[in-house]
Amino acid sequence: MSIRIQGVTKCYGRMRAVDNISLEVEPGTVFAFLGPNGAGKTTTIKMLAGLLTPDSGSIEVCGLPMSGDAVEAKSRIAYVPDQPFLYDKLSAREFLRFVGQMYSLDNERIEERSRHYMRRLAIEGFADQLIEGYSHGMKQKTVLAAAMLHEPDVLIVDEPMVGLDPAGMRIVKGLFRDWADSGRAVFMSTHTLDMAEAIADHIAIINQGQIVACGTLNDLKTRAAREHRLEDIFLDLTTEPEEPPETDELAMAR
Q1: Residue 208 domain-assigned?
Q2: CA quadruple 75, 77, 83, 86: dihedral positive or negative?
């Protein structure tokens, strides 16, 4: 199993940001993690990446516990946050070389993989320009190239489409699909529901810290009131029903 989350809870004071959730992600899967703002998505992802510690429950990556120092487990993942950090005074090529050296890749492998992922992500023509001059979308693609450089078993991405134009979105969707088809796993949080609908093998929806639905798109359709697009299903499962307007009779009765 690429990811196993069992009974995980995380609180901030009295607020339960994540409330006793369990998930499993198999190799070869694009797994979409959806939810409204404040639902617990980013907290879950940070625990999965080892940046936060659960208050209870357990997380495993590739059968390895994400507890303690978790060095071996962390070596199997790459994490791209929703607001990634880059060194503006480096070029993309220099940044990828720096990341490759941190993962102890040899120079030949760094150069080979850097060329490959920069070409796949359409940033090769800007490889030697300083990152400070990049658009937000270019920076996002550079971070994705760096995350894939050591070819981890699990790619964790928080809002991968932020700042990307339609052409960039298509490139990233194809890259994620190829990544999963090679036997690895992609775990992504996204508000881009069309993307989740297009490439996700499994989808989980979290709301108020709890998993309200998990399965294939067809599985989710059976849980929702309407069998339409993922947007309709998402809204059915995460939106509180509106109370009917008060009638004159009810007002007079009070």
Answers
A1: yes
A2: positive
Given CA atoms 216, 218, 221, 222 in this order, what sign does their dihedral have?
Answer: negative
| Nearest by Cα to 58 from 14, 22, 83, 32 | 22
Q: Which residue has the higher pLDDT, 245 or 81?
A: 81
What's the CATH number where 192 sits? 3.40.50.300
What is the mean predicted confidence (pLDDT) over 165-188? 94
DSSP string, 159-206: STTTT--HHHHHHHHHHHHHHHHTT-EEEEE-S-HHHHHHH-SEEEEE
Q: Residue 16 falls within a domain, yes or no?
A: yes
Full residue range of the structural domain in which residue 207 is found: 1-76+154-159+185-242
pTM above 0.85, yes or no: yes
Q: Average pLDDT, stretch 144-157?
A: 96
In angstroms, the CA 146 to CA 124 distance is 13
Instruction: Grade residue 123 by pLDDT with cuts at 50, 70 and 90.
Output: very high
